[in-house]
Amino acid sequence: MKGKWSVLPVIGLFLAALVLGGCGQGLSGAITVGGSTTVQPLAAKWAEAFEANNPEVEITVQGGGSSAGVKGCAQGTFDIGAASRELKASETSDYPDLVVTHVAADGVAIVINPSNNIISDLTLEEIKGIFATGSNDTWTVINREEGSGTREVFEKKVMAGMEVASNSEFLPSNGAVKQKVAATANAIGYISLGYVDSSVKALNIDGVACNEANCVDGSYPVTRYLNFITKGEPEGLGKEFIDFCLSQEGQELAVEEGYISVK
Amino acid sequence: MSFNPKLTQKLAWGFIWAAGIITVLVLLFIIGYVLTKGMPAISREFLFTEPQGGLSGEGGISSCIVSTLWLIATTMVILTPLGIGAAIYLAEYAPDNRFTHLIRYSVELLAGVPSIVFGLFGFAVFVLALHFSYSILAGALTLVCLLLPFLMRSTEEAMKAVPQSQREAALALGATKWQTITHVSLPSALPGIITGVILCIGGVVAESACLYVTMGGSSGMPTSFLSGGRTLAVHVFYLAMETNALDKALATGTVLIILILIINFITRRLSLRFQAKLRGET
Amino acid sequence: MSRYFIDRISRHIVSIFGIIAFLILVLIFIFILKESLPALQGIGIGDILFGSKWYPSHEAFGILTMLAGSVVATLLALVISVPLALGCAVFLAEVAPPRVRQITRPAVELLVGIPSVVYGLVGMIILCPLIARLSGTGSGSSVLAAAVVLAIMALPTISSISEDSLHAVPAQYREGALALGATRWQTIHHVLLPSARRGITAAIVLGTGRAIGETMAMVMVIGNSPIFPTNIFAPARTLTGNIAVEIASATGMHESVLFVTGLVLFILVMLINSIGLIAYRRQAS
To answer: How far apart are alpha carbons C23 and B61 in whole angstroms?
Structure first.
């Protein structure tokens, strides 16, 4: 019997080492960033670069949606929550200790299938009409799920309080919307500027193209900040990581990925 | 019978042949489609590099394979003793009373509950309340809840199939109840029990819904059972929904089908052995 | 240590395992019920169950459209798969040459274990574009695509269990009927199928339960629109898909309503099983 019990301290030490391993000197340890699928690819790039600078650090990046980022951060699932929108009033009242840091900016592009070469420009009113009507013979409308930051921004700036029609498809991420629009001839959807590539066609709104310059000078109407959310002021490894994202190197990476610098 | 029996016989035969052939062809077509489209994309590189994550769909599936293995290990380490222990209790010890009936009833009841409902539970309890976050551990514990009813039932059935006379013979020879179980019931029921365990592994491999909400879906290489991850099945979902790398999705599907084939082959072998053993041919 | 001591200890250990297992199972049910309470009290079961508008950010929490989506997709799937699966079961059990059986039987059994995402994937790649072309508009994400995917998923389950129960019918029944001059179809129709009815019922119940609980494949092909499934070429949403897509970001009342959605699924499956059980008992008597 005695022989068996003598393993216990070893296991104890092992567990202690696991726990303490996270609080070593210098930059080491692991954090999880999760939430907005808009921020996800950018956060993954930042994590990769940050890990390259600090080999002892491990940063896990997950999706889930902006609301999932806020909720996850507030409830401790994520060390840093990612959201592509500002906090809602209900969130600030439910979780008063959340701190928001703007880490990049982004436009929401209205995208259609590239085979649709008749339309390249719509007015804000027309877009609003299409999304309030939903899918019909002219359009297959692709929406985002409840809780998406991109949808929240779209509803606020394009729909202006009007509801998007239930009669449209609801997909759980920017990638899924882009994929669906790319595969469906008469589809229309909205995705983060950072996701736009040749597989979809971004529309001009009232003649203004969705690109970096127009988002920065404010002539393109559908823009937002991308945020990192922490419980209390960022500290430790989380702070180091956010500082890196805001550094010149971090912001250059953001622009490279198709997002907009906040500096 | 107002119809001509010969005519109905012909019509019915036509339908049965058609149904048989259509069913088999449809199923073979699906498997064939996935295998033929997926096979060419499988290479050493595909199996041994990490997915790039994000939207490109570039890269391989190494971290998904590792996540799947971690998940199988973590799930089975908890599930196997719990499920088999509980089944031994039900099969050998439980008195024939209300409480035992209640246990059996709840096992029956939960065996049919959709996996996403377990996912809901796992998300709220393991991910949030117990702070395991999105992790392999949270996924594994959810799967334990999902598969427990199945393993308990299959183990209990295997043990019940062992003839009572064998147990009585052991007890008559002065063996304690526990000796009877470990030396008589368990060995005879073992192939049946292992079949159940392997089917559970198949269940882990095939499951996607309750892992989608408990494991987080990060495509990185897991470093412990507290890291998040995505299994092969969940990876198929992400590839199909978010990327245009459909060939990689089909290749991952092919790997899944091959895994299920292997699991199917092993269980088939074992259940043949179990039947032989019960007939006393070992 | 004496073997009697081990015996006593072991008895306690397995009893504890039995009780833990039971507690886990009870806990799941109680927990889902508890999490549902805020919505059941705050919104009311009537407004959730019979509300046809789902717009959580605007305080609209009706799940009737998804309940309809789940039920319609499942029923449609059964209409497609039950005749085919039974035909296939009879084919394999009674009609097919032994050679054919030897190959197809294991193949059909193998298909029971294929992950549902693989069926969803094939549905997305082949079925949806086909349906989009047929209907002339849209992306092909539709009730029809969902039903066909569910039907194909249910086929192997229903077929292989039905075949087993056909096999279990004693050979004398078959021989007796044939000796009385019945045709083979009359034998199957009047003797074999009625004798195997209990197993076939169980197979259909199992297939239905699986179909209604399927999640990821549905998210992939049904389009997730919270509208009534009035047109099989238009999208809809299932109860399962609603949970999977929204649970990560839901808070407060919205989260609680998702637990109610889970509860409804739970009850739906129990209902299906009870109907199956009643049918099963009636046939037994």
So the answer is: 38
A139 occurs within a structural domain: yes
Q: Measure CA A174 to chain center.
A: 9
Backbone angles phi, psi at A201, to 5 degrees: -115, 120
Question: Is residue A231 one of the residues assigned to a domain?
Answer: yes
User: Is residue A88 a part of any domain in this protein?
Assistant: yes
- Report the domain count for chain A: 2
Total structural domains within chain C: 1
pLDDT confidence band for A17 (50 / 70 / 90): very low
Q: DSSP 3-state assignment of B109?
A: helix
Provide the pLDDT confidence category of residue A37 given band limits of 50, 70 and 90.
confident
CATH number at residue A234: 3.40.190.10
Q: What is the CATH number of the domain that holds C73?
A: 1.10.3720.10
3-state secondary structure of B175: coil
Residues of chain B with pLDDT under 70: 1-3, 53-55, 280-282
B30 domain residue, yes or no? no
- Write down the pTM of the prediction: 0.90
Residue A23's pLDDT band, with cuts at 50, 70 and 90, is very low
Tell me, yes or no, whether C257 lies in a domain: yes
pLDDT in tens, C159-195: 999 999 998 899 899 899 999 988 888 899 899 999 9
Q: What is the pLDDT of residue C284?
A: 61
Distance CA C245, CA C247 (A): 6
Tell me if chain C has a CB within 8 Å of the CB of A64.
Answer: yes
Q: How confident is the model at residue A69 (pLDDT cuts 50, 70, 90)?
A: very high
User: Which distant-in-sequence residues (6+ apart) come within 8 Å of A29 by Cβ?
Assistant: A21, A22, A23, A56, A57, A58, A236, A237
Same domain, A62 and A101: yes
Interface contact flag, A32 B134, Cβ < 8 Å:
yes
B106: domain CATH number is 1.10.3720.10
Domain span including residue C132: 45-284
Contact at CB, A147 and C246, closer than 8 angstroms:
yes
Helices B232-242 + B246-278 axis angle, to 10: 150
Distance of CA C259 to the CA centre of its chain: 20
ipTM summary value = 0.91
- For residue B34, being part of any structural domain is answered with no
* Distance (Å) from the alpha carbon of B5 to chain A's nearest alpha carbon: 51
Name the H helices within chain B.
Answer: 5-38, 44-48, 62-88, 98-111, 115-122, 136-160, 164-172, 177-180, 186-206, 209-212, 232-242, 246-278
Residue A61's beta-bridge partner residues?
A33
- Is C230 contained in some domain? yes
Are B93 and C11 in contact (CB < 8 Å)? yes
Between helices A248-256 and A40-53, what is the axis angle to 10°? 140
Q: Any CB–CB contact under 8 A between C209 and chain A?
A: no
> Could you tell me the residue range of the domain that residue A67 belongs to?
30-105+225-256
Strands A98-112 and A187-192: antiparallel
User: Which residue is it, tokens 């309940």?
Assistant: C67
User: Which two tokens mark B242?
Assistant: 């978010």
pLDDT at B152: 95
- Same domain (yes/no): A218, A229: no
CB within 8 Å of chain A, chain B residues 36-95: 53-55
> Cα separations (Å) of C237 from A195, C58, C72, C256?
26, 19, 10, 19
Alpha carbons C249 and B236: distance in angstroms, whole number = 22
**Mean of the per-residue pLDDT values of chain A:** 87
Q: Check A169 against C57: CB less than 8 A apart.
A: no
Rounded to the nearest angstrom, the minimum Cα separation between C216 and chain A is 12
**Span C149-162, pLDDT tens digits:** 999 999 999 999 99
The closest CB to that of A40, out of B54, B127, B223, belongs to: B54
- Identify the domain containing residue B179 by its residue range: 42-278
Domain annotation covers residue B133: yes
Q: How many domains does chain B have?
A: 1
